[in-house]
Amino acid sequence: MPETIxxxxxxxxxxxxDRRRALIETGFELLGARHYQEIEIEDIAKMAxxxxxxxxxxxxxxxxxxxxxxxxxxHTLLQRTKPDPKLPRRARLEAVMSAYVDYxxxxxxxxxxxxRGAIGADPEVRAIVEDYSRVQIGRLLKDLxxxxxxxxxxELVVRGWLAFVIETSLRWIDERQxxxxxxxxxxxxxxxxxxxxxxxxxxxx
Amino acid sequence: MPETIxxxxxxxxxxxxDRRRALIETGFELLGARHYQEIEIEDIAKMAxxxxxxxxxxxxxxxxxxxxxxxxxxHTLLQRTKPDPKLPRRARLEAVMSAYVDYxxxxxxxxxxxxRGAIGADPEVRAIVEDYSRVQIGRLLKDLxxxxxxxxxxELVVRGWLAFVIETSLRWIDERQxxxxxxxxxxxxxxxxxxxxxxxxxxxx
Lengths: 205, 205
Prior knowledge:
2 copies of one chain form a homodimer. Chain A has about 200 residues and is mainly α. Chain A has 2 domains: about 15-60, Homeodomain-like (Arc Repressor Mutant, subunit A, Orthogonal Bundle); about 65-200, Tetracycline Repressor, domain 2 (Orthogonal Bundle). The first copy, chain A, has helices at about 15-35, 40-50, 50-60, 60-80, 90-105, 110-115, 125-145, 150-175, 180-200. In chain A, helix 1 (about 15-35) crosses helix 6 and helix 5 packs across helix 9. The first copy, chain A, is elongated and about 60 Å long.
């Protein structure tokens, strides 16, 4: 519980869960704009229009807050990129990557903060990123009619493709060498080309 | 200068530059075996058979030591993967990736330590990794008859391919899904497939 409630910019009254979510969104934007090390918990409170005490009530430390922001960002991206089983395979991947590129356009700085994050070596952050990859890889394998462990080489290549996507996304955020549609096509074409390479070599293993 | 020279296991007498190099090699092996946070500068000294004072003489802090180890590792890998201009293009890339896979086999733990390093967000470490990427990308572009900046989309894809190679290397170190020869072929095939995708889309931009 907060010990003192200091005067603060009055915002509309929110339910605790909404307030928590608003704080996380603020944190996501702030992390995109500044380095983790430069951010003070007071800045987050000020930007969200709540007292530092209240922020500590929800998040005991800056690290807790950061980990929560990363977890929520990962969760949101997974929700938005859920494959639609009714679509044929290529259209399905196109729809997924289209949702992904939309997300990149809406939250370029937040995406970069999560993936270039200064505490990226933090075990909890790693676990979140690893979970994210595992879900995405599981979806892609399912799309190809495979179970995890059935095609180790293809899984290796799918992981590599995810790294390709993240790295090119980070560069694209800074340089915008392609239109969003072209970026989506590049991701889909790269997946097709790489998975074909893997399947031609890995099917006997 | 070391303040005290404590008794130590006697090793053969070495010139300062050789001793420095031996210390870096020890550090590289140690970083492969243990997490950065768990390593004490005393462990490195003990393993290398020198006094802590002498180690501090070469490296003022654990972080300095780590940064030097990463820089040397990056330098070694760049040296070993220098393309041979006398070879035709595909054979040249094969030779480069062959040298790269040889290196992975010799130093799996050290490679993983550099790329999963706990202080990977350290600005100096980032700069080293970024320099490494820039050199490798420059070489690949040169191989394709291009200068940096001439083909932004291809450069984006080359960067993505490097991320693909690093991620699959890290997984391969743990899981060995492929023989070393197959891994090298996968890298070369992936490069060919991805660069073709980029060239077909980026040539007008």
